[in-house]
Amino acid sequence: MANRDVELLAVGAGPSNLALAVALEELAPGLARDSVLLERDEEVSWQRGMLLPEALSQVSFLKDLVTLRNPRSRFSFLNYLHATNRLNEFVNMGSFVPYRVELADYLKWTADSLSLVDLQRGRECLDITPVWTDGTLTGWDTRVADGETIRSRYLVVGAGRDARIPDLLRTVDQDRVIHSTQYLPRIAKLRKDLPYRVAVIGAGQSAAELFGAVQRDLPECKPTMVMRSIGLNYYESSKFNNELFFPSHVDKFFDARPEAREQMLKEMHHTNYSGLAPGTMDALYRSIYLDRLSGRSRLNMVTMSDITDARDEGDEIVLELTDRRTGETQELRTDLVLLGTGFSPEMPRMVQEIAKSIGLSEIKVTRDYRLEIDQPATAAVYLQGVNEATHGIADSLLSVLAPRANDILQDILAHRGETPEVPPQPTSDADTADTADPVVATR
Question: Three-class SS of residue 395?
């Protein structure tokens, strides 16, 4: 028996579901009042493990939770800057990309600004089971860690992908293995005066940031970067490539033949993965250059090498590295392994379990992100941020947050036989002459 019934339950208060919550409040206030957003952590954040002070977002501030859907929204990044008295400083900086800590604070500010959607922090979803009525799927029972069960007709999963941890590194002491998603809280617990030998695994932005951060956070450490590639590369970016991150490209990608989708994903891989931002690349190379110049030989980089074995030996982890050019092996003895290995391309465990619970042999979604269910159903489930294979590379990024939230909401409203309650908008400058600009209006 459910302890509470709601119309819509969203799991995970990350950017995807926050964008949906904003769309609900602006376009469907009635539904918003019957919606719950669950967040397992005590506060809303974003990439909390890698909120390095100097790290920049790779996405324009205009691709926030709402602007591409409603530029006049009070939930925009610009209004956040105005509300926190930082608008002038940000404009003066002359950058389209905010710092990562700034973007995380914007998401927290948005969460605190919600007034209709019931955002519940510190509540972890343990499992989700389908509700059947006379052979028809009519809802979902979501069990929360505190024992409550919430029943909903609509379910939106936006909890993100699972961290990718190489199988070999799952067999060693996990107290010495830190994925980038856990870097800051776990590194803070270590003594700063010990000469740790650190292996940083990966060749992308996260690995490079870990390599730089650990030099500051553990000043006496000796880090070694290990990668399968021949070296580090910039992201492949151009204004032409960036058009493939436009919301309008989603339709083209979704309608493309499977072989065309595969080609596009392959060619777009280096626009977001296995690459570094120019600033990160330059800073990393300068640090290695200065290390060589000083003769310290503190920093090391091993390229074209696979980890072919890993074992615990006393108080250290021993990695066997096999050179892909020669086949020769060497041992790398470490005290700490940092993983800049990103996220698993597989569907998250939660999504797989939902699909299994209703007997689906394949996870497929519609253009509007609704899970295709091959049985009678009056309920529905939507997947956010995990549909690269059908919706393009931008699906796991911030680029399409606002339009995707709108797509999902419009599909839910159509499924319920409703139309959105669109708030009136000024139609000319004259209409706003005596009113506050909605972009900078405070709540």
Answer: helix
